[in-house]
Amino acid sequence: MRGKDVVLDGVEITYPNGFTAVHQTDLTVEAGEFFSILGPSGCGKTTILRAVSGFVAPSRGAVRIGGEDQTGLGPNARPTALIFQNLALFPLMPVWENVAFGLEARGVAKRARRARAEELLALVALADQADKLPGELSGGQRQRVAIARALAVDPAVLLLDEPLSALDLKLRQHMRAELRAIQRKTGVTFIYITHDQGEALTMSDRIAVMNAGRIEQIGSADDVYSNPVSAFAASFVGEANQFAGRVTAQDGALAQIETAHGSFLGRNPTGLEVGSEAILFVRPEHTGAGAGRNSLTARLQRRDLEGPFVNLYLATRSGAQIALHVPNTGAVDIGAEGDVSVGFEPEQAVVLPAGPVARTGADIAAQ
Amino acid sequence: MRRVTANGVLSAYTWGFLIFMFAPLVLMIISSVNDTSPPSVTEWGGFTTKWYSFFWMPEAQIRADAVLRTLDRDRFINCFGNSLQVSVVVVPLSLLLGLAGAVFLTRWRSRANGILWWVLLSPMLAPGVILGLSALVFWGRLGIGAGMFTIMMAQVTFIAGYPLLILMARLQRQPVELEEAALDLGASPFRVFRRITLPYLLPALASAAVIAFLASMENYNTTMFAKGGACTFATEIGAMSRNPNGHPPVINAVGTVIILLTVAAAVTHSLLTRREMR
Questions:
Q1: How far apart are CA B107 and CA B245, in angstroms?
Q2: Shortest distance, CA A276 to any CA of chain B (angstroms)
Q3: Domain residues for B166?
Q4: CB–CB of A105 and B199 under 8 A?
């Protein structure tokens, strides 16, 4: 295992203009882990990455890599390599010199540099492109050159700043698998920054959900998706139907919430007390036709066929928007006319403290 | 009567402007091959290249010519040599200062940048008289009299602004990430500069050098006040043109050569820029 663990110990980052990009944060990324930081743009995730790589000094707290305090060390003295969002390949150097640049900086002789560069280019399946300029490569190839260049310095930690965002969908999906494979093969700790939940969910061992300079939740992909602990995490990762209201009863692991659209029962993971302002979240795939223990009466607004699935959008008389995500079994999924009953089970709904929620695709489309 | 349109006014203005700019140059070029002195285009004395060949003409031939006989060829060549010497110091020094300023202003973001930008560029806007005299006074206080050295120092104060502007424009187009990536891969700041920033700047440095050279060669007013007893190409032409018998047509020949060199430099520059765009 080549990777090292990364610890943020009470790190707080305030820019000279007074803006606190990252509030006091404690975070441990295990050695050899594929760790993603997921959040909307401007949430502070890139700032954390730059603090780990040494481009930004924390205003408080310390970054430790493999147990060693990195305070006072510049980016060129840390065992990290950063893959930039725009890749930052050196346009005037051939591919192999790009890959070998870190070795050049370490004083490795030219012949040995070239040999190592070719080895790494073979690892990323670009062995025959060594003498081209980066500008002559395709987007996916440039991506792989950036990975090879970062791996050349034998980093203990590889930091990736949304490196796939410029690629088209097909290539992005392919590169996800490739990144994951490279991470497994090398055992390097990966810290991956993204605003794309699909990327985070498919690749990561663990995910930190971040908003407004704070980490809201850390957990496995399954954990973050199925057991969100904050309103933001529930609304940002995946889609969710939301009902805001007030807790009226508490019954073991469940809580009753009174909303403008009815009274519902859901899990209560944060132990909300009666009277608390809260929001109930339930996934569209856990919302179905027919009255469950929680039910609403609504009218179909739109039906989008997505092949294996059908997305149904309904609205209640009280104005709530509800999305359903049902398998396309060929049967008629829901009445097209008039009022229908939809519902969900309390075990699949979660009641969380009221707080900022992420804007959903439906919100943005509605504008 | 034809109606006067906005377009008509604009094209009349444009033509007027072009004539105003280029007619003197055309007249100069014509009179540079006219065998008449003082120079004239109305009084055609026959085609000649003697105004051009003045610089390498045998001594006997010069003495045979009534106009050329009165000119001091050695002094003129000596002054031209001085200009080259000045530019040999001024061009590299301006590039160095301009480069340092450009890197500083584009890579070191501080609140003082706005003020610094004005301070560094203000000599370009300052009248040459002031630059020349202040160099004269400043170095005089330090015990260095007016001469070649003060010419160089006075010229550098404003010529450094050209590389500064050209290199800043280029640096602003280079993503900072390239330098950060190199640093992140373990390179020292010096290596980052040598391997990443400098190669990227080379075409811009070349055009800045050409422009600084031209600015140094043709500078008259700043040089005039800083030169003391020394002379340069430009001040000597100035002196010759104040000849009471009208200026000798040799100046027209020299002027024509300068135009050709300038056009050649401009074409080279735009070719370089085009290559840099690709």
A1: 56
A2: 47
A3: 73-277
A4: no
